[in-house]
Amino acid sequence: MSFPEPLQQLIGNRLDRELNRKSRCHPLNGYLPQCPSAPLFIKREDELNANAVGTKQRKYLSLIPTLEHSGNCRIILIGSAHSNNVLGLTQLLRSRGLDVSALIKTPGNNALTGNHLLLSMLLPDDRMAYVSPREWPEVAQIAQREADRLSRHGVRAVIISEGGDSEAVLPGILTLAADVQRNSSDLGLEFRDIWTDSGTGISAIGLLLGMRLLGLTRPRVHITQIAGDPEEFRQRYARFETWLERLTGSAIPDPRPEVRFLRPASAAAYGSINKTILDESWRIARETGLLMDPVYSVKHLYTVKCEMQLQAPDGPQLILYNGGTLGLCGFQSALASRKPMV
Ligand SMILES: *Cc1c(COP(=O)(O)O)cnc(C)c1O
């Protein structure tokens, strides 16, 4: 697939040729308030990669080629025991024969479940090191010390920050805006609103910067902040803006879409789950046919529902499903305990 200019020229040859970069978009049936003047669509970012959570794939589109060509012998990943990023990247890198080690925040629960179990299946003990929650604020320095130690043994190592926060993901995350434009023209309609969720905010930043490059000031973008706050988002946005100016070699067009931040409507603390979120997971599955991960996607869709109940939407609406069914596997017993009566 080629992209509209100026994106094609900018990123066309910086992306992995084999990884998926197109996701489909279809009507969303059930769960959200249905109204003829506001048709609802869902973009299936979850289908980009069956083994990694959807939105991460766009970061990998450009991160993987950069790592493959970097000449580094070891890639050090950082994240929680249940990090979707560490699990997704580990699979892609190991399957390409690259040597990976992970610095993992020691989980509160030492039963091997969910992503922690899957990660342990992929990496032997000598490639997993645990850092206590108390020491976690210094994890970047701990990783650097490990890289220095390896280098004294002649092993060049590169460190990937939590959530994949790096300049190398920029070309990949710009693809989302072009893919939404493709969906919109295939469906023959213009979305009035996009509803997405964010953790580090990097994927949403990619959408917003991609829209600016393409000269799009619509649709309006609503962001459910599963983690972080608007100030943190703005700081990261400014950093990616600088990187984008370096990539394009010129100033980015100023016109930009309107952005609104939303707090999760329930279980607002990052990573937390409660009865409402578990019950909504069941309700979404029964009403829409979609199996969604509770930590991001269910919280997001529930928040969108609450917002739409407060203020009825008008015009075509696009909801992004950025997560994936794999994200359910750490919650099997919690979900089983909330099986509805009817
Ligand atoms: C990482 C992730 C996000 C958010 O991505 P960011 O780019 O960090 O904002 C959303 N949903 C799921 C399921 C994720 O794993």
Brief digest:
By secondary structure, the protein is α/β, with parallel strands linked by helices. It has helices spanning 7-11, 54-68, 84-95, 114-122, 139-152, 170-173, 175-187, 202-213, 230-248, 275-288, 294-310, 332-336, and strands spanning 25-27, 40-43, 74-80, 100-105, 128-131, 157-160, 193-198, 220-225, 259-262, 317-320.
User: How many strands in all?
Assistant: 10
- Rg from alpha-carbon coordinates: 20 Å
H and E order:
HEEHEHEHEHEHHEHEHEHHEH
Give the count of helical stretches. 12
Query: Beta-strand level of the residues, as a percent range?
Result: 5-15%
Please identify, by name, the CATH architecture of the largest domain: 3-Layer(aba) Sandwich
The figure for the number of domains is 2
Bound molecules: pyridoxal-5'-phosphate
Provide the low-confidence segments as ranges.
none
CATH class of the largest domain: Alpha Beta
Distance separating the two termini: 46 Å
Kindly name the structural category.
alpha/beta
The pLDDT mean sits at 96
**Main sheet: strands, sense, barrel:** 6 strands, mixed
- If you consult CATH, what is the topology of the largest domain? Rossmann fold
Helix content: 40-55%
Q: Strand order of the main beta sheet, please?
A: 1-2-10-7-8-9
Mass-distribution shape: globular
Report what the structure shows.
With 342 residues, the protein is of the alpha/beta class. The chain has two domains: 7-56 and 168-336, Rossmann fold, CATH 3.40.50.1100; 59-165, Rossmann fold (3-Layer(aba) Sandwich). The protein is 41% helix and 14% strand. Helix 3 (84-95) links the parallel strand 3 and strand 4. Helix 7 packs across helix 8 and helix 10 crosses helix 11 (294-310). The radius of gyration is 20 Å and the shape is globular. The model has no long low-confidence stretch (mean pLDDT 96). Bound molecules: pyridoxal-5'-phosphate (PLP). Pyridoxal-5'-phosphate is lined by residues 53, 55-56, 84, 163, 197-204, 293, 296-297, 322-323, 327.
